[in-house]
Amino acid sequence: MSGLAYESLGREGADGTPVLYVLHGFLGSGRNWASFARRLVDLRTDWRVVLVDLRLHGDSQDVYGPHTVGAAVDDLVDLVAMVSPGVPTAVLGHSFGGKVALMATSRLSPPPIQTWVIDSTPATGGEGGAADRMLSRLEASPGSFADREAAVTWISRGGFDEATARWMATNLERRDEGWAWRLDAGGLRELLTDFAATDLWSAVESPPSDASVHFVRATRGSILAVEDAERIRDLASRGQPVSLHEIEGGHWLHTDNPAALLEMIADRLPRLPNPG
Predict the structure, then answer these.
(1) Residue 204, SS3?
(2) Are residues 92 and 203 in the same domain?
(3) How far is CA 69 from CA 46, 60, 63, 66, 121, in A?
(4) Which structural domain, as residue segments, surrounds residue 134?
(5) What pTM value is reported for the model?
(6) Domain finish residue from 144, 159, 186
């Protein structure tokens, strides 16, 4: 049984309704996508959405190492087998979750009928920068804070804007000595290191039959390099079941330009025969 925490939105019941599994980015949680998911199931009542807390994120803290992209995929495989056995699935992943989704395309059985990779990369590297700086700030944190505001101030002093600092503060929990991070910094470092070392071009160049992979690239600050975007376009031009879309906005497209992303996904999710 999977140790992952999750939330299900949309139609319930063992009626064969297809399920879209949504995987968040590094240091996030499933609830980061809750507003987007609620709007999606309102538009596409023929689908359910399951918001997943990936290992060492959100409420999925009680998991064993080693902490790798592959281990995160193993968790997802177990979750799918528990939540929607025998039901058509699709997978959407943002940033770190995008690489998990891409690897899962080849590991889930049967494979997802559609995979969405939201501003992520199949290449090595790509998750340094802000993610690495935030994790370094977390690793340097004091053992506890007097209150949430003290933690927000600590993060802000590391060079992050207030909105980002407040988002990070959602990872605090109350303890006897004050407020502390509920995150395993060492395990998260393993995850981030493995993300940077994992090459998934083979999953793009040879996806399972009947699967389709959609990359969505932000027009500003994307972690999908220009040359990698061109490589994806070239594969598409040669008939591979992969496509590249661009949406105006920054890396956090689901909050930066949710309407455009919602329209794109709602329009392209397959319309399957009614299971009833």
Answers:
(1) helix
(2) yes
(3) 30, 15, 14, 10, 13
(4) 130-186
(5) 0.94
(6) 186
